Amino acid sequence: MSSFGEVLAPRRLGSSFRWLLASTWTSNIGDGIALSAAPLLIASVTSSPLLVASGAMMQVLPWLLFGLLAGSIADHHDRRRLVMLANGVRAVIVLGLVTVLVTGHVSIWVVLVSAFLYGTAEVFADTAGSTLLPMTVPSADLGIGNARMQAGYLVANQLVGPPLGAFLFAVGSFWPFTVQILCVSLAVVLVSRMARTPPPQQDVPALVDGVKHRPIREGLSWLRDNAPVRTLILIVLIFNVTWAAPWYVLVLYATEYLGLSAVGYGLLATSAALGGLVGISCFGWLERRVRLATMMRVCLSLEVVMHLGFALTTSAAVAFAIMFGFGVYAFIWGTISTTVRQRLVPLSLQGRIASVNMVGVFGGLVIGQLLGGLIAQVWGLTGPWWFAFAGSAITLALLWKAISNISAAPPALESGAATG
After folding, report:
1. What phi-psi label fits residue 109: left (phi over 0), alpha (psi between -120 and 50 degrees) or beta?
2. What are the helix (H) ranges across 193-315?
């Protein structure tokens, strides 16, 4: 019988993967703590809905402003050191916030500026961090590696962190952020134990015929000419628009339409995380037995069915079942899409293409959030679900055949490239 450590992080993936996994899990605990503590802090210093909403926007705006730049920097510098530096900056920013909280001089503007600066550092940390796995493990093991990363996100960021952050905030407003500093700092130490990750050799020199090389444009040009990756990112963008439309009014749908209490709404979100754990635990088995194109189509088809189910049901019990199922397939899809993208993109472009993907993710969330609010205002709380159902169904129908091209595309990398 394999030990728990061997199941969690197989020895064949190497010691660098284990250090990366430990660092990611630790950082996710800190982020999960802030996930509940940050909104509580904002709500404690202002009652303005606009300012409260601005706190959430501070998580999105840095990606839209700096995402592509972060990808270019990650492709031209030591990615491990970039993660360490960006996480170190995050810890310093939170330390400044804690100092303000302890001295009692906190204001909403201090909190919002801190959130923006923290979010900006997080863009660079996450972009560089997303390139480390393809440099660390063989291409064939990217699926299981990403599944373990997703499991850390689910357990630490979604299940353990938020209730811990709320509890610590009740003890004292500075405590959750103090613990967050410890988690982020420990993550820096853990990732420092990885093997070096020197920047991959670039195919294009700094000067081409005397003209300065533009790395962001190079990444966008590669994406324009690569149909499988371009289609994958398009799917992610559109499905984030359709998903975000009802998700950002879910609290009203759950409490006013389904009649759930505040606790019931929280359990609805938790059920998705529990479903995700089931999905992630089955990923290795599915990857060995089910064709990639089939898994992709099934996951996206279930997304369409989920939207329809929420639009039709008036039963809280059915809603919980749907949300659990959503967690199962959504995190399988997240693992698949990340793995496929990492396999198809050259190491020298991993940062730039990952950043385009993330800009699409957050851009889709912003568009979907705005559409969902407008639709719910005019057509009621089930309106966003009908929009999501129609939009995702049409998108899937149009791109159904293209999914085969994505799954059949030859990999651009064969193995991890980290050096000792």
Report:
1. alpha
2. 215-225, 227-247, 250-252, 262-289, 292-312
The residue type of 276 is G
**What is d(CA 372, CA 384) in angstroms, rounded to the nearest whole number?**
5
**What is the Cα–Cα distance from 347 to 39, expressed in whole angstroms?**
37
- As a whole number of angstroms, the distance between CA 95 and CA 271 comes to 33
100-156 pLDDT, tens digit per residue, is 999 988 898 999 999 999 999 999 999 999 999 999 999 889 999 999 999 888 888
C-alpha torsion sign, points 412, 407, 24, 366: positive
- CA dist., res. 287 & res. 230, Å (int): 23
Type of residue at 99: T
Q: At what angle do helices 15-45 and 175-192 cross, to 10 degrees?
A: 160
Express each pLDDT in 57-107 by its tens digit. Answer: 888 899 999 999 999 999 988 999 999 999 999 999 999 999 999 998 889
Distance CA 74, CA 412 (A): 18
210: exposed, middle or buried (C-beta count within 10 Å: 0-12, 13-18, 19+)? exposed
> Are 194 and 330 within 8 A, CB to CB?
no
Enclosing H/E stretch for 208: strand 207-208
Place of tokens 């491990």: 80
Query: Residue 200 CA to chain centroid, in angstroms?
Result: 24
